[in-house]
Amino acid sequence: MEKSINEWMVIRKILNERKFDIKALRTQSAVDSKTVHTIGDKVVENSSTAKYDVKVLDRRIIELQNADLAIESAIKQSNATTRVNLPVNVDSLLSPIE
After folding, report:
1. Domain-located, residue 94
2. Which residue range is the domain that position 24 belongs to?
3. Considering its fold, how many domains does the chain have in total?
4. pTM higher than 0.70 for the full model?
5. What is the mean pLDDT of residues 30-49?
6. H or E segment at 18?
7. Cβ(11)–Cβ(3) below 8 Å
């Protein structure tokens, strides 16, 4: 898929947000918990079960990380070959103060 560098940078940011969301979801889904409260003669049970398969979430996280690597590598490669001409005299800016 061909897009501009700016578009890929935005997509990369969105994918990173999605990756963090899925990691949080994986953490929540990885643990089955059951809580029992007794108040006098009344017993209240709260239980939560995994909503998503942790292996599927891990696979998606890896896919997002691989996409991030590919996008970042392509952007850096493009930046390495793109020359930018600016009206700035770097030699005079970096010379010692007289």
Report:
1. no
2. 5-79
3. 1
4. no
5. 73
6. helix 5-29
7. yes
